[in-house]
Amino acid sequence: EDEAESLAEDIDQLALIAIEFPVFMDGRGFSNAAILRQQFNYRGELRAVGGFIRDQLCYLSRCGFNAFDLGGEDLEAALHSLQDLNEFYQASSDQPKPLFRRR
């Protein structure tokens, strides 16, 4: 339930930040990850835990997550999910320029 801003003072001392998704429909984790990566320049491990689903892995990665607690998910299928989409219109932590700026 903590906001990303609450970690600002200690961000350089944290090797791992885990963000809990209470349910897959809760988008706060996406926002917090983007804030940590873009506003606070966090470069450590950012792990998604809890109620996210495999269909969200590609989007979680775009927001800055680089680790996932998959529970009982099939690892091979999850790895393929990271490549579900290969082009995006919007800017993100993994591509700072929107599509119209890249063309």
Q: What report would you give on this structure?
A:
The protein is an alpha/beta fold and 103 residues long. 29% of the residues lie in helices and 14% in strands. It has four helices and three strands. It has helices spanning 28-39, 57-63, 75-81, 99-102; strands at 16-21, 45-50, 67-68. The chain has a three-stranded parallel beta sheet, with helices on one face. Strand 2 (45-50), helix 2 (57-63) and strand 3 form a beta-alpha-beta unit.
Radius of gyration: 14 Å
Helix count from the secondary structure assignment: 4
Order of helices and strands: EHEHEHH
Largest sheet: 3 strands, parallel
**Morphology:** globular
Helical percentage: 25-40%
- How many β strands by DSSP? 3
Quaternary class: single chain
Strand arrangement, major sheet: 1-2-3
Secondary structure layout plus pairing:
Elements: E1 16-21, H1 28-39, E2 45-50, H2 57-63, E3 67-68, H3 75-81, H4 99-102
Parallel strand pairs: 1-2, 2-3
Features:
103 residues, 4 helices, 3 strands, 14% strand, globular
Gist?
The chain is α/β, with parallel strands linked by helices. It is built from four helices and three strands, in the order βαβαβαα. Helix content is 29%, strand content 14%.
